[in-house]
Specification:
About 15% of the residues lie in helices and about 20% in strands. By secondary structure, it is an alpha+beta fold. The chain has a two-stranded antiparallel sheet. A two-stranded parallel ribbon has the order 3-6. Bound molecules: flavin-adenine dinucleotide.
Length: about 130
């Protein structure tokens, strides 16, 4: 196992190992903090289940978000303790598809729909695009 220092990618440490346990978390890209969008405590954009951005003042017109950057309500109730989706590729891919469909619906003034309520645990299948 080779470890590096992230800022300059210089070698940090090296050791033998058969098993790697990854415990790092996933966080929203910090660039979102330089916007005026409403954020929640984890630094993600607040969105409705149909991915429209909405703050205390209500919906922000023509503003949408999905994926790690967005705090999407998990309608199954099995997401994070705060009721939002776990930031993983399964959710991000499904949200991306829903976002595209909702943008198209909005373009033609049709109602938007919520993201899929199915919850998936990360699995090796995600690497093969099976979500
Ligand atoms: C090490 C690691 C392992 C993971 N393993 C799994 C796993 O096994 N299963 C699983 O389901 N999930 C896993 N995840 C989580 C998964 O990768 C993310 O949840 C998913 O990629 C989120 O997709 P996204 O499109 O929201 O963001 P991203 O995939 O991060 O895409 C964001 C894109 O925006 C680009 N970008 C950033 N800033 C700017 C800018 N200013 N201008 C233009 N473009 C910009 C980035 O370059 C990137 O291409 C893992 C994450 C990490 C870090």
């Amino acid at each position: 196992m080779k470890l590096i220092n992230l800022p300059d990618k210089t070698p940090a440490q090296e050791f033998e190992s058969d098993t790697l346990v990854w415990t790092a978390g996933v966080q929203a890209n910090p660039m979102i903090r330089s916007t005026d969008f409403p954020l929640e405590p984890r630094g993600r954009v607040r969105v409705l289940p149909d991915l429209r951005i909405a703050g205390d003042e209500g919906i922000i017109e023509n503003a949408w978000a999905a994926g790690d950057i967005a705090a999407v309500p998990d309608l199954t109730g099995s997401g994070l303790p705060d009721g939002t989706c776990v930031p993983n590729a399964q959710h991000a891919l499904r949200q991306a598809k829903r976002l595209a469909k909702n943008l198209w619906a909005a373009r033609w003034e049709k109602p938007s729909r919520t993201t899929s309520t199915r919850t998936w645990a990360p699995s090796p299948d995600s690497a093969n695009g099976k979500v």
